[in-house]
Amino acid sequence: MSGLTFNSYLNNALKMHSEGAFEQGYEYVTQNAQKVVGNEAKILNYRYSFAARAGHPDLAVKILKEAVGKGYWYSRSMLMEDEDLESLRQRKDFLELVTECARREIEARTSAKSKCMILKPSTRKRAIRGTVIALHGNGESAELAFPHWNSCLEQGRTLALIQSSQISYSMGFDWANLGQGVKELEGHWRQMVRVGLDPARTVIGGFSAGCRVILHTVLRGNVEPSGVILVSPWLPDLDSILPHMDRLLLGDTRFMIVCGEQDSECVDYARRLAAYLRSTDESVVRSRIVPGTDHDFPEGWEDMLRQILSGMIG
Q: Of 181, 176, 251, which is closest to residue 219 (Cα–Cα)?
């Protein structure tokens, strides 16, 4: 992949926000909104947040109204606790939109269920070359994760995309409740095993917070894939995870850890986890820190993924 990705779009915007460049940030997220493929609700969220912080409350409410008019919603906590929106909280028109979003939030949370999208390769002449199970990051969905893993299908592999039941805004799912995420991954795994999944020919991969769910799930011992792929692993509880990692090595689970060198939040987790695994059994872990990459899949990821899977499950 090349050019501006949805993740790099968000990363660039967050950098401007951290630097207090709110006017510049608004111009950036607005001018590039049509250049990325991603969750439009999230794009509009960035636009109204930057507008409000830049001192344009009328514009911010207008953009939020546009989002609600398109059927999107944001959690009440997002709207009422985000400091970017402080200037809007005394406005009647804003509070009316909050009320509507809260109504939609209740409906969405009541009906939300974890799902597993299973896609088979189109080839009919060759045997299926194993299965890849993929987990999205926080604020994402199975649909957003698909472009990062769909090359598996071209390789003749089955692709299973798991989506969390925890929803924070329109099509924005997360893994905030770790225990719930672990149960959902275990449940989908059991179901796939019942219908013929071969653990020895299966790799589980994830992005960001999805990596944390994968590690905790595999450590419990009920899910035993041949390999694990962690991209930009967000592991805030890594210190509590490391003492239990030996369990994984006993089962010869192989790891590939990929992280951008500029991913300030996750690159340390990636390095520490890789170093620990190597110190225990160097044969089961590979890692790559990619220069010039932030919290995102690296350029050339499709070729990299092909090589990783060939080494793990042939």
A: 251
